[in-house]
Amino acid sequence: MFLVSGPRIPVYCNRRTFLRRAGLVALSIPTLPALGCVPDRPRQLGRGFEFGSGAITRPVLLPWSVDAVRIVTPPPELPVTYVSMGRREIYIDFDFREQVYWELRAHISVSTGVWRIPLPGDPENRPIQPGDELREFEELSIRHWDASREPTVGDIRILRGDLGNVTVAFDCAPISGGGAWFSAGPINILQCPGAADGLCREDFMSIGTARRHPERECSGQGQPVELLTWAGSQTEA
Fold it and tell me: 76 with 23: CB under 8 angstroms?
């Protein structure tokens, strides 16, 4: 059982109902209701995007910066691990602790319990020295992970399953809140379907370029903007 702390009262949920509710909360930005238990429903995550369908054609888009936008892709279930670059914390499902240790190529300090995790691009056998603030993370239970919190570029989540091909291709999709429309793709990425044997890793990263248009028809070339979402640490060409 998982203890989910909403703004008012704690609610006990099983793994499946918590995860489904967490996905809905992530899509409700900027108005975030309390997490709670709900009856089982199909794994539809909103606006025509069903995780694991092999294509993102009707994305939920949120502004990221003046020249960037992100695709909201809630995990299909509670991650077994979430690494927050902004907070320097790693949230662990302790049933998967040993597997995650190897997946991240991590070292755990015997004296402090701090996780030292290599960053993408680090040499495989590069030692991480104590005090390396970019690569040291405090360990917490996954129950403390806040599904509604904005990701940071470089955040890592590890899910159950194997990486699979997903095509990002959409034409004239509105940004949440209105005021701009975007087109992108096709862009081929890797994502985790969840609820399967094995573990797979996704990083929050830039996957390419989209085009911003001021009008609903998306006529003209538009303005290039960076497109961010969760993807396997190795994207396909």
Answer: yes
The amino acid that residue 71 corresponds to is I
Contacts of 179 (CB under 8 A, 6+ apart): none
CB 148 within 8 A of CB 74: no
Token representation of residue 28 = 């409700």
Model pLDDT for residues 173-232, shown as the tens digit of each residue: 999 988 899 999 999 999 987 666 789 999 999 999 999 999 888 888 899 999 999 999
DSSP assignment letter at 217: T
Q: CA dihedral defined by 39, 60, 86, 124, rounded to 10 degrees? A: 100
**φ, ψ dihedrals at 103, nearest 5°:** -60, -40
- Which residues are 170's β-sheet partners? 184
Amino acid, res. 115 = W
